[in-house]
Design a protein that fits this description.
Bound molecules: zinc ion
Strand order of the largest sheet: 7-6-10-4-3-13-15
Number of domains: 3
Oligomer: single chain
Shape: globular
CATH topology of the largest domain: Immunoglobulin-like
CATH architecture of the largest domain: Sandwich
Mean pLDDT: 95
Radius of gyration: 24 Å
Structural class: alpha+beta
Helix content: 25-40%
CATH superfamily of the largest domain: tricorn interacting facor f3 domain
Largest sheet: 7 strands, mixed
Length: about 600
């Protein structure tokens, strides 16, 4: 069934030019941008590590339609102290609380209102923020603070019109303890200030979920004139080595889809509790330290976050039901960047891993087929429910199949024009389909089952199969090993890259005995691997195969205690749960839970029915 989207329009003045902005209905925001919308945020923050609270003042420039008498912001678990309109006190009201959305903040406006200022405090319940104690950092000397805004968490640390289709510019002044450095998704300092005060500017309009802050004992190391890394002292050199290809990636991306629009592309490496692999905050990608493998083998994550500089940050999903527009395009683009840098077979290998993820996801969603559509209907649900392999890998498969049908050169011209024509605006699935039909399919007289791909569950029959010769080798070895034709030692002596090893581990057959698992571990040292991706998939298989040798149980516990990346820890907890080890999962989770960000906690709470 198709969700009907009512399009409302509104005129918006930017640089003296009147632009028509179309707003879709967003079930995940209380804002009514067609009546009154914020266009610029001036943010003042005082970060208190002792109380784990931020004191904030959010001043907005606003535009109203038809003399709107009120403007509505999203808030969640914030303490609102005082509100002004046109610099004079005004009445405000916090509406009733919704568990997912929070509370609407309705502010009365005088005639000709141009500004609104909200004085507020975050609370202990603020979900976007994670205050870490020194023990949870790499250097173990200073505390750390990180934020995660996507999908609808920015409202938990800034009162804001928190819909991805509303774009604002921002300035910020942030006060932190003198020994720490603050960085944001904005123009950033390269050195610590003496007084702990930092000023930021984001000149390009961005969606609220992309406002981000990290505070810690950070240093900066440049890679090229427009790329570099921020990290704690003990991590900075490793990060600089790991991400050395960043400039090459930006150049490759520009060659594909046009000029990089955000001037600077830096990465900040966060402590391991960061809930995601990476978050594409503009100008400053937030990254998990688990991608630092020492051999640059997991850097497709950086290509992914960089690709978001076009798909997501430049052309943004209008609502979270259109999330596949952000992620499907980004995975497609990521593969193209990886192909440009490391060749077709490497990119195909990564794509084959994605296909396996997708098949597993589909398997797990057998009872909820509606969630396997690209266009979702998340009304009344947490938009995080849509952040799974469907948006990423089915979205990718759709675009890859489309490329295969229309040919690469037509696909590239289409995408480059698409990004160029919609730069700094938002996109609904419906508008994208119109644009695709008009500018690619009808124009070239090509028939393609677009509606089936987007509005129907599962994978259409015309999906292409990505073949990787490197993976074929691995699959042959697995068969030979299973049938006793080669030994574990011979497997481990193969000259495989990391992705081949991962493919091997993930496809270890169910019937493999503990004795064989032990032989494998003895020769390949998977339990003690320093590559977090390898250990994650190996731990999953150890649990599936009831394998307990080589101290693997305590390694698993240690991993879950220190790493908070949602994908990693949820894979392991899920393996424990599915193998009758729920008690063990519970016992570890009870200890590890305080180390996790709310995003990870929410997922695992639900998975383990933890209260
Ligand atoms: Zn992404």
């Amino acid at each position: 069934m198709l969700l009907t989207i009512l399009i409302l329009s509104c005129t918006k003045k930017t640089n003296n030019k009147v632009k028509t902005q179309q707003y879709a209905i967003d079930y995940h925001s209380y804002a009514q941008p067609n009546k009154a919308v914020a266009t610029h945020l001036n943010l003042k923050l005082d970060v208190h590590f002792d109380t784990k609270i931020i004191d904030g003042v959010a001043s907005y420039l606003i535009t109203t339609q038809n003399n709107a008498s009120a403007i509505v912001f999203d808030t969640k678990n914030l303490e609102i102290l005082k509100v002004e309109a046109n610099k004079k006190p005004t009445k405000f009201q916090l509406e009733k609380t919704d568990d997912i959305l929070g509370r609407a903040l309705k502010i009365e406006l005088p005639k000709n209102a141009k500004t609104v200022t909200i004085y507020y405090k975050t609370t202990a319940k603020t979900e976007a923020l994670q205050f870490l104690n020194p023990q949870q950092t790499a250097d173990k000397k200073h505390p750390f603070l990180l934020t995660q805004g996507q999908a609808i968490l920015t409202r938990t640390w800034i009162p804001i019109q928190d819909s991805p289709q509303i774009r604002i510019t921002y300035n910020a002044t942030v006060k932190v303890p003198n020994e720490l450095m603050a960085v944001m998704s904005a123009k950033n300092p390269k050195q610590k200030s003496k007084d702990g005060v930092y000023h930021f500017e984001m000149k390009q309009p961005i969606s609220p979920y992309l406002i981000a802050l990290a505070v810690g004992d950070l240093a900066y190391k440049k890679i090229s004139d427009r790329t570099g890394v921020y990290a704690e002292k003990t991590v900075i050199d490793k990060a600089h080595y790991e991400f050395a290809d960043m400039e090459k990636m930006v150049t490759a991306a520009e060659n594909l889809y046009g000029k990089y629009a955000w001037q600077q592309f830096d990465v900040v490496v966060l402590p391991p509790s960061f809930p995601f692999g990476g978050m594409e905050n503009p100008r400053l990608t937030f990254a998990t330290p688990t991608v630092i493998a020492g051999d640059r083998s997991l850097t497709s994550l950086i290509a992914h976050e960089l690709a978001h500089s076009w798909s997501g940050n430049l052309v943004t999903n209008a609502t979270w039901d259109d999330f596949w527009l952000n992620e499907g395009f980004t995975v497609y683009f990521e593969m193209r960047i990886m192909e440009a840098l490391y060749g077709k077979d490497h990119a195909n290998m990564l794509a084959a891993i994605g296909r396996q993820d997708l098949e597993e996801e589909l398997q797990g969603m057998k009872n909820t087929p509606n969630d396997t559509k690209l266009k979702l209907n998340l009304k009344g649900r947490n938009p995080d429910d849509g952040m799974n392999s469907i948006a990423y890998d089915k979205g990718y498969l759709f675009l890859r199949t489309l490329e295969n049908t229309v040919g690469r050169s037509k696909m590239d011209v289409f995408l480059k024009t698409y990004f160029n024509e919609h730069a700094f605006s938002t996109m609904t699935t419906e508008r994208f389909i119109d644009y695709l039909n008009k500018n690619l399919l009808d124009k070239n007289d090509i028939t393609f089952n677009v509606n089936e791909w987007i509005y129907k569950p599962g994978i259409p029959k015309n999906a292409i199969t990505v073949k990787s010769t490197k993976f074929k080798d691995v699959e042959n070895s697995i068969n030979q090993w299973k049938n006793g034709k080669i030994t574990a030692k011979e497997i481990c002596n193969q000259d495989w890259n990391i992705q081949q090893k991962i493919h091997f581990i993930r496809n270890i057959p169910k019937e493999i005995s503990k004795v064989k698992m032990n032989a494998l571990d003895t020769h390949c040292s998977f339990t003690n691997s320093t590559n977090s991706y390898i250990t994650m998939v190996w731990f999953e298989q150890a649990i599936n195969h009831d394998y307990h040798a080589n101290n693997v149980d305590s390694k698993i516990e240690d991993f879950l205690m220190h790493v908070g990346r949602r994908w990693y820890v949820s894979t392991i907890y899920s393996a424990l749960k599915n193998n009758g080890e729920i008690k063990k999962a519970f016992a570890i989770y009870k200890k590890a839970r305080p180390n996790y960000h709310s995003v990870t906690r929410n997922t695992i709470d639900e998975m383990l029915a933890y209260k």
